[in-house]
Amino acid sequence: MAMKIRLARGGSKKRPFYRIVAADSRMPRDGRFIEKLGIYNPLLPKDSEERVKMNVERVQYWIDQGAQPSERISRFLEAAGIVEKKERANLKKGTPGKKAQERAEEKAEKAAEAAAAPAEAEATSES
Description:
Largest sheet: 5 strands, mixed
Radius of gyration: 26 Å
Number of helices: 3
Low-confidence stretches: none
Oligomer: single chain
Strand content: 15-25%
Distance between the termini: 86 Å
Shape: elongated
CATH architecture of the largest domain: 2-Layer Sandwich
Helix content: 25-40%
Strand order of the largest sheet: 4-3-2-1-5
CATH class of the largest domain: Alpha Beta
């Protein structure tokens, strides 16, 4: 049985609330789970201690039993210092597309021309 430590969504519409659970990987996201390991409330501020609460001993037990944490859970565990930080792929989702890059280059050229024009005007008026 492939075990996962993952989030199970609760809460109402537009008000998410998650349980951190140990579940069989074949079960649905909000379906049957084996054990509740903690809670995650994304609506609270990031510096709040109530935002993520988990039973660290039980999480460690399930990891020792071979359970694989999901991406979000592994980030929580890294923040808690339970798991060593692993290298992640830095995807290029945040970089602008070709047209946006071209527009930025054109804008930079225009700004450079505008900055150069007053300097030339001052140089000619001083002579």
